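Title: Comparing notes on inverse folding

I've been comparing how different people in this forum approach sequence design from structure. To keep things fair, I'm posting one structure and asking everyone to reply with a full sequence. Here's the target:
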């Protein structure tokens, strides 16, 4: 009994000291019986991921046969969202993730499942029987399941103490916009487009502070290879949309989304210009850098002095 108590105490101490490095969310819409079958079929449609009411990803879900794994009948993920990839929208402390899925067939009946688990810096081992030991660096696992017809929404609060704390996370929420605010926000978009010109100093400053989850930008390499200069020489240009086509979305946070009302990308870049750029590696590098500089939407915040700035 004493040995068991000591073992439990050591196990508890180990878990208490384990630091959470990330939190992973897995979403799957499907038909089938995971409790009985070793495979289920995913439902085609589109999944949108929001963190603290800010859209951070959109993914198409295709019709596929996916496995059901392990003793707990874990369905392979159709959409995998590690919190560490959510970028600067993620807060140090409490956050809310929301996943909205719209099936291609609005009348189809299906099941949907959201799973989550914390990824820690320690591995725990569990003896399941003679010679059977399982190891994992995950904890606080859970799941939520729903039966659905049409759109389904999952929402969950979680704590991310591993997130980067940014000064503007503590700005007051923006609850309304004046005409002057809209003009200032439109000017941010126009200025970002106009900055695509030699010597690209403004864009290099953006890249220095750019949040690029899952992507490591080699800023020195970008400068040395003159990626932006070569794109400009090939005729690449960036056009900003007209101010009256912009949509400004309040999030209930300091962030305001700037996007196009038309559904098109916020910034217009002539794809034909890429054909005049020599070399696949250069094309790929330029496309990656432009994706950071000219995203589908800009996110802006207003500081205490009332000045707007694009933060990602």
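Reply #1:
Here's my take.
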């Amino acid at each position: 009994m004493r040995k068991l108590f000591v073992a439990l105490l050591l196990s508890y101490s180990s878990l208490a000291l384990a630091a959470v490095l990330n939190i992973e969310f897995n979403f799957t819409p499907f038909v089938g019986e995971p409790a009985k079958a070793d495979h289920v079929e995913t439902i085609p449609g589109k999944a949108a991921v929001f963190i603290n009411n800010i859209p951070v990803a959109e993914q198409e879900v295709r019709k596929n046969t996916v496995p059901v794994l392990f003793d707990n009948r874990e369905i392979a993920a159709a959409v995998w969202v590690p919190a560490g990839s959510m970028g600067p929208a993620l807060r140090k402390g409490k956050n809310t993730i929301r996943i909205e899925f719209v099936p291609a067939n609005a009348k189809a009946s299906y099941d949907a499942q959201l799973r989550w688990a914390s990824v820690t810096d320690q591995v725990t081992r569990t003896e399941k029987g003679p010679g059977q030991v399982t190891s994992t660096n995950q904890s606080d696992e859970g799941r939520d399941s729903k039966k659905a017809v049409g759109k389904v929404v999952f929402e969950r609060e979680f704590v991310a103490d591993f997130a980067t704390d940014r000064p503007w996370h503590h700005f007051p929420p923006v609850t309304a916009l004046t005409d002057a605010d809209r003009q200032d926000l439109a000017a941010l978009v126009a200025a970002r487009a106009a900055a695509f010109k030699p010597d690209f100093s403004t864009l290099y400053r953006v890249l220095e502070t750019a949040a690029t989850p899952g992507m490591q930008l080699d800023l020195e390499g970008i400068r040395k290879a003159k990626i932006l200069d070569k794109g400009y020489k090939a005729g690449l240009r960036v056009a900003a949309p007209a101010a009256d086509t912009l949509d400004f979305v309040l999030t209930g946070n300091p962030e305001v989304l700037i996007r196009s009302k038309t559904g098109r990308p916020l910034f217009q870049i002539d794809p034909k210009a890429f054909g005049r750029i020599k070399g696949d590696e250069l094309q790929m590098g330029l496309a990656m850098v432009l994706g950071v500089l000219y995203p589908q939407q800009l996110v802006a915040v207003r500081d205490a002095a009332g000045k707007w700035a694009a933060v990602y």
